[in-house]
Each structure stands twice: as C-alpha cells, then as structure tokens.
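Long-time lurker, first post. I've been practising inverse folding by hand and with some scripts of my own, and I keep getting stuck on stretches where the structure tokens seem ambiguous. Below is the full token string for one chain I'm working on. Before anyone asks, I'm not after the true native sequence, just a reasonable design that respects the backbone. If someone could post their per-position residues I'd love to compare against what I wrote down in my notebook.
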C-alpha cells in the first residue's frame, strides 16, 4: 500500500491507545498530539505508568494505536503492512534503549557494523561509517575494545552511535542516563543534542531526570495518558 506524505519529522495526531484490563480496557494514551520537527529534540517526562513508554512504542511503530495518525519522516504509517513498517523502522528510525545490550563478543566498531550487515550492505562501507560515528561520539580510540573494557558512559555512547548507523530521520531514546551519575548523564544529553542538530534528526527523549533538560528544544509532560506542554 502506498503511504501518504506529510511534513518531515515526527508527528503524532490524536493518538489513543488502550490495553485489555480484565473485562474493561485501560487507556494508555488519550488523544495525544505531538510534533517534533527535524533537527530538534523533545523531552517527554512524567511519573512511572503515565504513558511515556507507550508513546515511544507508538512513535516507533512497534504498537498500533486504536485511533489517530503517525507520520514518520514524511510517511504516514496508517495502512502500512507489517513488512512495510519493518522496512520503515530499519531505514528511518533509530532506537536507543535504556540498556545498551551490547554483544560481549563484538568490538565497539563491530556493534555498529552489525546493523548494516543485517541489511546485506557493503561491509567496507559499514566499517567506514562505524568509525565515523564512533568519532562523532568521542570514541574513535575505542573502536577495537569490547564491552567489558568500556565504562557505562562509553557503552551508552556506542548505543547512541549504533542507533544512528542507518542515518535515521527519527531518533527515539528511552531513559539513556538512568544507569549513569549526574555528570556522565549530562554529557550524554549534550551529545544527543549535538547529534540531533548536526544530523537533523527528530529526536524524542524519554527521561525522569528534569535536571538534565537544559539542552533540549521542548519538553512535554505525560499524566494519565495525556500529553501536556511543560516548561523546562
């Protein structure tokens, strides 16, 4: 099915998402609207269970909402097949999970190269791009080290670089500083902001730490499945 084209960036329009809860349904997202232009970073904050993870799952096209529209990098996802959504995630969306989950047998560069190998692309080009991204996140000299030889902050930087390997238009980041101290967390947020602006990604950052929000372009707050503008 051919998708309709809308504005670039990430756009969630009137999103409602419910889950079964006994004989009734629990509303995880309640008519949520969110727009993140290319080259900007929006932080999503809120208490546990408020709907932050559900919002990220919908934005990543991992969960289909009950109602509403999702636009990813100019493509509206409504009506796309499972295979088309998989292809869209592979080419247009980078996801940074809370835990890096690096493969212990691979070097830092190989962690990134694996993302391209899965698509069957040129391994020499994959190596070159991996080294460029490691340089971008300040780890050019760690390319041949394995995960157990790296600090927590370094592993998270590799996690971010890995999500950028396919040059995504949308970057979705889940609690990237939860396992780091304040100083390392602040450095990671600065890095995310810099890469967002340099690479013109539309970035959504889910975080619980409001003290690290000075580097973002916008903040939105989730309460009981509803998204409200919030000051920094």
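-- Answer (accepted) --
I ran through it position by position. Result:
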């Amino acid at each position: 099915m051919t998708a309709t084209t809308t504005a670039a960036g990430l756009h969630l329009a009137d999103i409602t998402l419910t889950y079964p809860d006994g004989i009734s349904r629990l509303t995880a997202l309640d008519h949520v609207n969110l727009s993140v232009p290319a080259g900007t970073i929006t932080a999503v904050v809120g208490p546990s269970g408020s709907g932050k993870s559900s919002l990220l799952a919908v934005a990543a096209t991992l969960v289909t909402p009950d109602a509403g529209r999702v636009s990813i990098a100019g493509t509206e996802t409504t009506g796309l097949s499972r295979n088309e959504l998989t292809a869209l995630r592979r080419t247009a969306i980078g996801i940074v999970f809370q835990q890096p989950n690096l493969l212990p047998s691979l070097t830092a560069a190989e962690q990134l190269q694996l993302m391209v190998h899965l698509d069957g692309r040129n391994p020499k080009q994959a190596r070159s791009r991996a080294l460029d991204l490691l340089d971008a996140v300040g780890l050019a000299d760690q390319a041949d080290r394995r995960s157990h030889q790296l600090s927590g902050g370094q592993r998270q930087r590799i996690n971010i670089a890995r999500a950028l390997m396919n040059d995504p238009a949308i970057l979705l980041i889940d609690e990237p500083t939860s396992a780091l101290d304040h100083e390392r967390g602040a450095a990671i947020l600065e890095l995310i902001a810099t890469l967002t602006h340099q690479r013109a990604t539309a970035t959504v950052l889910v975080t619980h730490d409001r003290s690290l929000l000075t580097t973002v372009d916008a903040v939105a707050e989730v309460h009981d499945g509803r998204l409200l503008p919030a000051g920094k």
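A couple of notes from the structure itself: Residues 10-229 form a domain with the Rossmann fold fold (CATH 3.40.50.300). The CA atoms of residues 28 and 54 lie 7 Å apart. Happy to go over any region you disagree with.
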